[in-house]
Amino acid sequence: MASLFDIGKSGVQAYRQALTVTGQNITNINTDGYHRREASIEEVSASQGGLTAVASQIGLGARVSEIRRSFNEFMTSRVYSTKADFEKSNVFYENVRDLENFLLPSDSDLGNFMGNFFGSLMEVATAPGDIPGRLVAIEEGLGLAGAFRQTGVMVEGLKMDAKSQAEATADTVNLLVDELVKVNQRLLSSGQSGQVPNSVLDNRDKLISEISERVELTVTYDQRGVATIILGGTVAGPKLVEGATARKMGIIENQGAIQPAIISAGSVSPTSQITKGSLAGFTLSYEFIGEIEKQINTLAFLFAREVNSVHENGITLDGKAGGKMFTLNDIEFGFGPTNRGNLSAELNITNIDLISPEAVEFVFNEERQSWTTNSEDSFQNLSTSASRIAADGFDLKVFGSAKNGDVITLDNVSGAAKNMSFLLKKPQELAAASPTIVTQNSLNSSDAVMEINKTTPAQFTEPPVVNAVFENGNIPINATDFLRDGVIASIPAGTQNFSINSYSQQPNVSIVLSLDDLVDANNLQIVLADGANAGTHNFALGYGGLFSNAGSSDNWTDEAEFQKALAAGVVTSDTGFTLGDLGLFPSSTSSSLNIASSSAAFTSASVTTSSKTINASVTASQDASDIQIFTREGRHIAGSPLSETEIVNFLSEENGFNPNAEYYGSYLNQELNAYRGMNLNISNVGGLETIRLGPFGSTSDAIAGYGSLPDSPTSSYTIAATISNGSSPSLT
To answer: Are residues 63 and 101 in the same domain?
Structure first.
């Protein structure tokens, strides 16, 4: 049984500890992260005696059972959310304030420079021959270009500063997360009792609070107090910290915006869960400033284009046509940050004025093997394939293998403001005069008035020039093949002579045949569908059977030798025909055998080896394309007469015709004294025919000498040919 003194002593000790806790609270009232403590005092009960003893009803005094931290999980979560909301708004406000301070009207703002520039041009218009006025206009032009550059650089700097701060914030979050993981490890090592110093829990909550200022988060705790950090306002977001493991945060740039991302095991996963915190403020600032930058660049682009257009229509003080006043950067292209293909590209600009000022995104469609866009209306005559994106004004060649979903962006405006320059150096270069002057003759006696109004010439849709569409060569082997019917091209102005041919395509078969397959081949089978020799024809291909003098190890050396044997008639069918007898002509490459027919259609063809049958791909004949030649006004120069439906379909602005074009067929196919004195030569021939001469005949024993005429030690000789039109050319 405790004495009265022992009971009193326990009470004094308990309340002394409680006073110590109170003193600790007072001392740390301004300590960052400190949570108020509270001493919990409980009775020290008497212990029980034996089985027949009665428990003491007096007790043994008092003691401090626990030092509790003042912590409310719900209220703390609300504090975290409120902090994140405030930090986002505060960061966005500070960035927008800096932008506003720069763009507010002042004596040196962009609008003031533009007003001064146009004012100086008005002075030049009032006195076009006044050199001092022209000098002032040039200085104002230089000042305006400098103002655009300064504005572009400043706004871009604010945007990039927001990105840098976002990256720095992500790095700070990573450092705080690493510290929190260490705290979690200490909590995990405390055992099931969870008895850890309150200072450790204070440190945990302080770290979480600092993280919450930067990113929106949700926190859960286990029974030991180990914290799990989830990004976003719900538990459905990605986990940033879980026990003793953590993920890193980073920033990626995508389509003109920056986005937080989770980095884990080498993979980068963008997340849209972070809508609060200073990091969200920086991403929002970057996007907002980027939109302002785009508007400023668009203003610079349109301003330069319109002013240049007007100035180029004027006359300088020296009587020359005006040039461009302002210059900007060229069109830029870029690749998507998440592209999986290894791509590079080459851009050729033909007319930057024809390119849309909007940024356009092209996405690769693997099924179509072409680049697609939702902005087709921004281009004229847009065409794409896997290796090319082209339209009026530019041609982009793409190298490498694109993957489905890969992105290429074209931007004609980006950087326009910061790259603007004023081109005129001398006052005489300012084009202040009109190329057309209307004056009244002093001898006029009537009161008639002539009024002349300037009109804009009709704008044509400019089809690609003919050399860009067709191969420049009048031989069938160089002819251009098209994937679909119909193609439009323009003959450049000033062309003196021009010829164009359209070829029909003969029936042909193509057999993929390697040298190993050829050496092992024993039969070529050709099945003709029609004609006098319709049916199946088999050609034995064994080298020893064709060449009686061949050794046991001799065989075909390449596809060219095999093709020559077929063409020379060494190889005959089981019906006694050569390929020439059947109207067939062979050709070869290093990996294929091609056979064309003069008229008969193919049903099938194949080569049989000792181990397999190689089937040919069969291509049917195609008629030659019609050729129609018009002027922009609708005069039909050459071709075949058009029906009413064809006139409506052909004579459109999209095809390059004048909006007021009307069809006239009276000039059609006039070979002499045709439209405006031109001469036409129109012919329709059946095809090209050849005669092959071998030195010793076409037997198998003579094939070794095929391909060249024999050297003659005596006199020269003459080759003569008789053609169906009656002429007899010869070659000596």
So the answer is: no
Confidence at residue 704, expressed as pLDDT on a 0 to 100 scale: 42
In a domain, 458, yes or no: no
Number of domains in the chain: 3
DSSP state of 469: H
- Here the tokens at position 604 are 């099938």
Do 57 and 89 lie in a common domain?
no
DSSP 697: B
Over residues 707-712, the mean pLDDT reads: 44
Q: ∠ CA 438-440-442 to the nearest 5 degrees?
A: 155
Chain mean position to CA 17: 72
| 247 φ/ψ angles, rounded to the nearest 5 degrees | -115, 160
Residue 682 in any domain: the answer is no
Residues 155 and 8 in one domain: no
Domain that holds residue 562: 508-621+695-700
Name the E strands within 302-341: 326-327, 332-335
Task: Look at the pTM and tell me if it is higher than 0.85.
Answer: no
Whether 374 is in a domain gets the answer no
In a domain? residue 60:
yes
Kindly state whether residues 81 and 64 are assigned to the same domain.
no
| Distance in angstroms (rounded) separating the CA atoms of residues 558 and 590 | 8
The C-alpha atoms of residue 337 and residue 252 are separated, in whole angstroms, by 8
Same domain? For 125 and 27 the reply is: no
Crossing angle for the helix pair 198-214 and 278-312, nearest 10 degrees?
20
- Both tokens of 348, joined, read 């050729």
Q: Answer yes or no: are the C-beta atoms of 145 and 186 closer than 8 Å.
A: no
User: What confidence tens digit (pLDDT) does each residue in 34-86 have?
Assistant: 767 777 777 777 765 555 555 556 677 777 777 777 776 777 778 888 888 89
Residues 22 and 115 in one domain: no
SS3 275: coil
Alpha-helical segments (H) within 129-197: 131-188
For residue 617, what are the β-bridge partners? 510
